Amino acid sequence: MPVGSRPVGTITRGTTNPNRLLRCDRWLAGPQAWRLRRAEAPPVVVDLGYGASPITAVELHDRLATVRPDVEVVGIEIDPDRVAAGRPLERPGLRFRLGGFEVPLEGGGRPTVVRAFNVLRQYDESEVPGAWALVQERLTEDGLLVDGTCDEIGRRATWVAVERGGPVSLTLSMRLRGLAQPSDVAERLPKALIHHNVPGEPIHTFLQDLDRAWAHAAPQGAFGARQRFLTMASSVAADWPLLDSPSRWRLGEVTVAWPAVAPTPS
Fold first, then answer.
1. Which molecular function term from Gene Ontology is one that the record holds (predicted)?
2. Which of 96, 185, 191, 251 lies 20 to 30 Å (CA to CA) from residue 157?
């Protein structure tokens, strides 16, 4: 970061826990792994706004190194004290630095993935497009911004996948054990959607259709919640552009094309 410049953004509450972002990491190391494999040079992955503890950046490096052993994970925080707390954990492929949505990387490098979880949730919705745009400008050609939200221990998570050209998908991921209905994840929708979960909006309709299909699949619950979720997703796929397959549905995860759930233009 140039001398005298200030990170772009505001300090978040910083709450974090081990394995809180497992669901998203599993997705990055699964359906999105091609982005890492395609990179000729070691891909750079940023954990943006990782919070009071650097544990999520450490876990991200561990998980993505199974896909690309030479991956470089950079934890970026706007709070100098949080950066200082991460520095003792630095190792080959993992480092920490001060910054915000401008995503400062050494030598002007560009990230392949920027994961920003539970960051924009604490901003006004009107600030989301600007934050996305700043990160999009920094991405590699195949790069991805993941703007997500989850509960305190990662049982329920949602995220928007944003490429350089704009958002492409919304993923809902939830622990199946104890799940009452899929729309329970609504309170963890990303900032770009959470205030649009009202009648007449696409995201509300999508969640209602998930709940309806979940209820109709109740008999499959005799074979377990996983089978019930599979049946639900298969039914919903007839009317909604789901971008994943049963291999992801088995994990309690479903991804839908962004245009189908994007807020109605005002």
1. methyltransferase activity
2. 96
Q: Are the C-beta atoms of residues 115 and 28 closer than 8 Å to each other? A: yes
Instruction: Quote the tokens at residue 137.
Output: 């400008």
CATH classification at residue 88:
3.40.50.150
19 pLDDT above the threshold of 50: yes
CA distance 22 to 159: 13
CA distances, 116 to each of 4, 111, 122, 202, 257 (Å): 25, 13, 12, 24, 20
Is 253 inside any structural domain?
no
Residue span of the structural domain in which 103 resides = 1-164
Is 101 inside a domain boundary? yes
Give the side-chain half-sphere CA count within 13 A for 51.
Answer: 21
The domain total for the chain is: 1
In a domain, 192, yes or no: no
197 in a domain, yes or no? no
Q: Are the C-beta atoms of 135 and 145 separated by less than 8 Å?
A: yes
Residues making up the chain, counted from first to last: 266
pLDDT of residue 199: 97
> CA–CA distance from 156 to each of 36, 107, 152, 188, 252 (Å)?
25, 37, 9, 7, 10
Question: pLDDT tens, 188-227?
Answer: 999 999 999 999 999 999 999 999 999 999 999 999 999 9
Query: Contact at 8 Å (CB) between 208 and 226?
Result: no
- Digit-coded pLDDT (tens) for 87-144: 999 999 999 999 999 999 988 899 999 999 999 988 999 999 999 999 999 999 999 9
Beta-carbon count within 10 A of 150 CB: 24
* Confidence category of residue 17, pLDDT binned at 50, 70, 90: confident
